[in-house]
Amino acid sequence: MRRLKILLAAPVLALMLTAAEPAAAPDRPLSDPAQEARAQALFKDVRCVVCQHEAIADSPAGVAGDMRRLIREQIAAGASDQAVRQDLVRRFGDYVLFTPPVRAGTWLLWFGPFVLVLLAGGTLILRARRRPTEVAPLSPEEERRLDEVLANETLRRDLDATSPHDGRLSGSTIER
Amino acid sequence: MIVEFGAFALALALALSVLQTVLSAAGRARRSPVLAGAAEGAAIGAAAATALAFAALIYAFVISDFSVSNVAANSHTDKPMLYKVAGAWGSHEGSLLLWCLVLTVFGAVLARARGLPFGLKASAVATQGALGSLFLAFAVFTSSPFVRLDPAPFQGASLNPLLQDPALAVHPPLLYAGYVGFSVCFSLAVAALIEGRAQTAFWPAWGRWVRPWALASWAFLTVGITLGSFWAYYELGWGGWWFWDPVENASFMPWLAGAALLHSAVVTERRGALAGWTVFLALLAFSFSMLGAFLVRSGVLTSVHAFAVDPQRGMMLLAILGLTAGAAFALFAWRAPQLKGGGMFAPISREGALVLNNLFLTAAAATVLLGTLYPLILEAASGATISVGPPYFAATFVPLMTVAFLILPAGPLLAWKRGDLPGAMQRLAVAAGLALVCALAAYALWSPKKALAAAGIGLGAWLILGALVEVAERTRLFRASTAETLRRLKRLPLGAWGMSLAHLGLGVFILGAVVETGFKAEAARALTLGQSVSAGPWTVTLDQVRVVEGPNYLAEQGRLTVRPSNDRGRAKTVTAERRFFPAGGQTTTEVGLDFRGLDDVYVVMGERAGTPEAPAWVVRLYWNPWARLIFLGPMIMAFGGLLSLLDRRLRLGVGARRRRPA
């Protein structure tokens, strides 16, 4: 019974596996390795327009195969990478490239992260300059509490102190 | 019957969660330990009830009860048992129930925690209860997994075959433990804002309460994301492991925020400083978790990982996200100016280094957020459609993180309050020199010559060596006697080991990622039996193709021989499959993986080509050098997090809270 199922299913399976891919003709790499390398690099930046967030380099979809063939043909005909990209954008829109265009609408996208770091870094530097790095002297109340703590507790050495300076400091002044 | 019992338990959990919120808030307002104690009981009850509901759902999946609509939609009698069980969290309803389970169980552990001041704990338990109420209400009223079908079908529609994989069976529970673990940080942060302690003594203690949760959540999330990435790597059959896909980004944002939180909580715990910032990050981490859930579930983003998409429920999630994050950040804006942490420090100090770490990690999280949401925002605003993919992140995220990694090894060598930068640099000189040698050697020896990849190798080596220098410094290696070094090594706190391991794991990951990205090779060819294809130093020959029958699929299985092209080395046989699942009419690939040291030789059986007389199969071959490190590195990082979690200092005064549930 099982065997029969396999026998019956095998042609169906073969049909399913091939019919799903009408453009199953495997990719024919360009004969010039340098050109083929350029094509491969472009494939990684071009989105398969019917897939979900997949580059045509990775997509098994028929459309992706067509797009790969198109790009290879253009490269073989001597088009520059830039020209191929422009042609793709003309046909499919900006959406087709995984590298978003740099224009007024995308400045925030491209420069936002760096502006953020510069702004935050600048603020930090300004604050560090304005704020005295010396620890303010203790108030009389704090002095009193410090005395109390020192009198009542046996402080042990801070095991977590990584810097040898830390260790030496606590070792000599507190551990007594 | 058991299914109805599950539905009842779920409703009961919602009622108990509401009760938990109300009782705890009332207990806090009236300073009544009795009410607060009752709220803690309700929290434990809610967790137990959710666990029962979850068990009932798993039971329905195990016995294939197709009268339950969720089971009928996601299971099949032919499915192996592991995937029947995993099917319980494979759908929207089931995964939401899992989310609620983690949320309430963590809530119960929080309720059992000892040593927290009364007000803070009552507020935190109330907040956690409110979160639980919202998500449980969402589950009960719109997404109950216990809805019956009448008439019941004879067979189920089965789980998406892509998800039928051991790594993916455990991926959601781990991921959710991470996502939802941040809810406790969130609740503790909201509680701290409500309690609004001005005295400096409060914040170190608060930092100590938050840190174990942040550590545990971050470690879970690390493992969860790594498993997901590994699954995508070998199951999707595309040879890659990360594509800056929106769903990948959705899990990466809370991870980055969580990593920032871990580091800033250290400053708050040790020095009482950065209190407001740590509170902010605690709110941010869980907000990102909820945003991630929304992005994945709502279908606003297209992704290869987007399963169980439903726009209407997405809107509900957005409402929950807006309500909770909105309220929490409003509270933050109101109270933050009054938060007074102590702890002055000089710019060059451990604190200063951790502030820089936070600057870069949050900027990185913001970059990922921007890259993920920008296409949506732009399309809504101007109608223009763009795609944001790997090239964008390579140009923004990568340089930011590179700067952060360059600074990283110096941080742990600086003292608290005021550090000695020249001293730290002097101690790192050997590591820097060796890292430079690694980079130069990689450039000279590895062909094709790639300057960026070589620099990346140097960066990875820098992190690994930096972590080793850190341990050597703590133990005074070569500067004290061997006995003294050994004594210090033995007394090194687990937290220190954890930190060094995590940083080392990061270096390991970078090595793997850089080498794999820089030097991988691939080839695809239609092969008839006996023909070969080569990529990098490997040649693969197609030996045999046969049809095999799995429990719920049929497959064309290819047997292929992998051998070094120069014939120096052993040949190995791998099998790769192309599976057809009749239940859903889908085709998947099973990659043939040959582990060669750190490298992967990765073989995918493609579609049939050629003529019926001379059949051929498209075989895609990838050589992924050092790919093993990509998944090993994060595991080391997570293990470091675990070690830190076991540190005695975090256990002290934390009591029962340390006993973490699975």
Structural notes for this entry:
The complex is a heterodimer of chains A (176) and B (662). Chain A has helices at 2-19, 33-45, 62-76, 81-92, 107-130, 140-152, 164-173. Chain A is mostly helical. Chain A folds into two domains: 2-96, Helicase, Ruva Protein, domain 3, CATH 1.10.8.640; 138-176, no CATH class. Chain B is an alpha+beta fold and 662 residues long. Among the domains of chain B are: 1-163, no CATH class; 412-518, no CATH class; 521-624, Tick-borne Encephalitis virus Glycoprotein, domain 1, CATH 2.60.98. Chain B has helices at 2-30, 33-62, 69-74, 81-87, 92-112, 118-142, 166-195, 202-235, 246-271, 275-298, 311-335, 350-382, 390-395, 397-407, 421-445, 451-474, 482-491, 494-519, 627-645, 648-651, and strands at residues 521-527, 532-535, 538-549, 554-564, 572-581, 586-590, 592-596, 599-610, 615-624. Chain B has a five-stranded antiparallel β-sheet, with no helix packed on it. In chain B, a hairpin with a 4-residue loop joins strand 3 (538-549) and strand 4 (554-564). In chain B, helix 1 (2-30) packs antiparallel against helix 2 and helix 18 (494-519) packs antiparallel against helix 19. The longest helix of chain B has 34 residues, at 202-235. The two termini of chain B are 28 Å apart. Mean pLDDT of chain B is 88; it is low at 652-662.
Helix content of chain A: 55-70%
Overall morphology of chain B: globular
Structural class of chain B: alpha+beta
Cα radius of gyration of chain B in angstroms: 26 Å
Membrane topology (chain B): Multi-pass membrane protein
Keywords (chain B): Cell inner membrane, Cell membrane, Cytochrome c-type biogenesis, Membrane, Transmembrane, Transmembrane helix
Family (chain B): Belongs to the CcmF/CycK/Ccl1/NrfE/CcsA family.
Pfam family, one (chain B): CcmF_C
